[in-house]
Every structure is written in C-alpha cells, then in structure tokens.
Design a protein that fits this description.
Helices cover 25% and strands 26% of the residues. The chain has seven helices and 13 strands. The protein has helices at residues 41-51, 68-71, 74-81, 92-97, 108-113, 187-198, 219-227, and strands at 4-12, 17-26, 29-33, 58-62, 85-87, 129-130, 144-148, 157-161, 165-169, 172-173, 179-180, 204-207, 213-214. The protein has a six-stranded mixed beta sheet, with helices on one face. Strand 10 (172-173) and strand 11 form a beta hairpin. Bound molecules: zinc ion.
Length: 228
C-alpha cells in the first residue's frame, strides 16, 4: 500500500499564519515530519491520536530544519511516543541551544527577533541521530531518501519518497502561490538546492507553510533564480 499522507496544519500568531506537519502512515506505523510550535501541543496530540498514532507505532520524527515552528514539540513527542528524532547536523545548535541564528548569517531583522524566536529551555533537545544527503529511510518503514537542501538554513533537508512526494521544509512556500521562500539565509545555496531538486523525480511538494502543490507549478522559482 502506498504511504498515506495527512497534513496537520497548525495555527501560529493568533491565526495570522500557520505551519504544516505531515504524518505519514505506512501500513500500521507512522513517520512524523516536523512538529509545530509548543503552543500547538494539544492540537498536534489530538491529530496524532485521531490518526491512530500511539506509543509504539511512531517510527520516527523527522525535522526539516531547526526553527521553532517546526521543532517546538519534538522533544515532548519523542518522550510521549518513545520514538527517535532525526535531523541534519547543520541545524543541531538551533535545537540544542535555542538559538535561531546558530550556523546562520542572519540579517538585521533576524538579529532583533533572535530573543523571541528560539526554542525555550524545556523544548530544547539533542537529536537521536543525524542524517545526511542520500540517507535511506527504509529502515523506518518509509521508502524515501533525505535530500540536503540548504538555503533557509544550513541544515535544511527535504524528504523525497519513491512516489515523488517531496517534503521541502521552508525552502519552498505556498501561502499565496508556490515560490522560493523569501526568508533565505543563503540565497546562493537555495538556488543550488533548487537545481539539485530539478534533477530528481518530484511529483508533489509538501511545504512547511501553505498548501501542497504539484512540482510543475514551480515556474516562479525559475524566474526568481534568473534575476539573482
Ligand atoms: Zn517555518
């Protein structure tokens, strides 16, 4: 049976924005991609429960990047479900120290926002293991591989299933239309990440923010890249 993808859309900033987590069901087991903010805890717990996810059948929590809207419940859910957390080492300091600018160049706005945008102490964690480009997730029940796609952060990663579903974290966004995220720490790296993705067999994209979309809709990104 092909994996079943459930989008868990969680509200942020009093409903002005939202963040997506993706719960993938493979037979009787699950893999969770990203975890929302700590303010979304009750909601994500409810959604997991509704889907039939319980301690013992959550194979893995995968983190696309270290920002707090993707990592806020990782430590909590790891404990509750007795599972493991995997992410790219390039963002490890963000979740261990609660410092959103760790391994990032930052910009004037992000420097002002820094005290408000890190994981609070109780939600910080050390991942159980790190994954690199090409890491095969079959051992966790998911026929997919990890694609390293730096740009939004150095440790940003995508997950590409054998069916062509790409979970892209915050490299791409579709809150209005499918585009390269305007919040980029390293634009050059982001462009290279897009070039890398273009060589792969991608059918649908599941972004960290906004609606999933077909990969073919990404014409804007190509135009953006030419301008830079
Ligand atoms: Zn985000």
């Amino acid at each position: 049976m092909p994996p079943e993808i459930r989008t868990i859309k969680l509200k942020m900033f009093a409903g002005l924005a939202s963040v997506n987590c993706y719960l993938i069901k493979i037979n009787a087991n699950f893999v969770l991609i990203d975890t929302g903010t700590s303010g979304n805890r009750g909601e994500i717990e409810n959604q997991l429960e509704k889907a039939g996810c319980k301690p013992g059948n959550l194979n893995l929590i995968l983190i696309t990047h270290g920002d707090l809207d993707h990592t806020g419940n990782a430590a909590y859910l790891r404990d509750k479900y007795g599972t493991k957390i995997a992410m790219h080492q390039g963002d490890s300091g963000m979740v261990q120290k609660g410092d959103m600018l760790w391994n990032r160049k930052g910009n004037p706005i992000s420097k002002i926002m820094k005290p408000f945008m890190g994981l609070s102490k109780s939600n910080r964690f050390t991942p159980d293991f790190y994954v690199e480009d090409g890491y095969d997730l079959t051992n966790y029940g998911l026929n997919a591989q990890v694609i390293h796609i730096p740009g939004h952060s150095l440790g940003s990663l995508g997950i590409l299933t054998d069916q062509g579903d790409l979970f892209c974290g915050d490299l791409l966004i579709n809150t209005d239309k499918p585009v390269l995220n305007s919040i980029m720490d390293d634009k050059k790296a982001a462009n290279l990440s897009i070039e890398k993705l273009e060589k792969l067999n991608i059918v649908n994209v599941y972004p960290g923010h906004g609606e999933p979309f077909p990969w073919d809709f990404l014409t804007e990104v190509k135009e953006q890249r030419v301008e830079e």
